[in-house]
Known about the structure:
Blueprint: H1 10-27, H2 31-36, E1 41-46, E2 51-54, H3 56-62, H4 66-69, H5 81-98, E3 100-109, E4 115-126, E5 132-141, H6 143-183, E6 196-202, E7 212-218, E8 224-231, H7 236-255, H8 259-274, E9 283-292, E10 299-306, E11 311-314, E12 320-323, E13 340-346, E14 351-355, E15 363-364, E16 370-371, H9 374-382, H10 389-402, E17 411-417, H11 423-428
Helix pairs in contact: 7-8
Amino acid sequence: MSRTGQHPDPHEADGEQTASAAFAALLEDSAEELYDNAPCGYLSTLMDGVIAKINTTLLKWLGLQREAVVGRMRFTDLLTVGGKLYHETHFAPLLRMQGEINGIALEIKQTGGGRIPVLVSSVVKHSPAGEPLLIRTTVFDARDRRAYEEELLHRRKAAEEARKQAEADRARLQDALAVLQQSLLPDTLPPVPGVETAAYYHTAHPDRLGGDFYDVFPLDGKRFGFFLGDVCGKGPQAAAVTSLTRYTLRAAALYDPDPISALVTLNKVLHERYAGSGDARYCTAVFGILEPDTEPGHIAVRLASGGHPPVIVVRADGTADFLPTPGGLLVGVLPSARFATASTVLAPGDTLLLYTDGITEARTGDNRTALFGDEALLAFAAGHAGKPPPALIAALTGLLQTFGDGLDDDTALLALGAPAPDPQTRSSE
Length: 429
């Protein structure tokens, strides 16, 4: 095209003429040639299925000659056995009802015995009077699509097998961790004369070892030691510290049952073991001694705490209070640490409740933004005052279950109580 005020460019004009000539040559393709060599298969059949017309493309796919097909074969003769059944039961009835049908997946047979997956669409041609005259069918080669679908199916199957294997591996890991976790806790609490006991351990993450621990064990014929605590961190390292802590406290108490002395020994062991390793390990812990009080049916309790939440004393009269142990330091952080002490007497029906902070730090509310808290736990315990330790622990277990996914830390519970008098015994006195 010439610019205003300029003569036409001869090279530009030649280019336009060449393009026009090429386009005109394309338009010279006859409709018959376009039909016969189309990239898809075409055929027309009479209403009874006899093939009246078929293009070269489809004949090449089939490996057949035109004279062997036109007027001699029906459309169903091109299909596999399964395709024939589907054509008779679904394809043909739908085509008769609707007048057309689109994108049906079938397979056509090749002369050499091969098969080609295809997508078939058919439409019925009618006379001006509305009478059905013939069926025009288009056949698309679906080999690439079938290969893609098979590859997709293969990958989905592989992914499903990998998922099942991962689930099985995780289940085996959880079983192994559960056994290991249980080995860090006492199988059962020993019988303590004049004392009822109960404990519970909640694992927040079954595929991860926790660091909470507890134990009750005899010191001599009359006294029993008990402890409960929480090691920092999770996993195998925390489990190793838990094991070391349990055995250290047991051994220390047999040597010197004073609660302060037991925590001092544990502090020394943990600090010497981990302070210089570059991976400091510490814990919170409550260690105590149970022994019969001078008054029959009463239990004297002496305990020491190192950075642990205060224990709760639930009284038979319906009240509950914290047993304060302020100022106790974490066990294992410093070479020497100060630990807080406390003492109380459990009267018949009273219970001492020890717990780790998994329960008080459980997230509550619709948005899981509020913590359950110490005061709520105290109120809950007071609501179960007078109940024996097993009943209190059962109630707390039910409480933990209500937190759902808001409970994301392990929780250990230990209850020690002086049995309430048997009502029948009291009535007979």
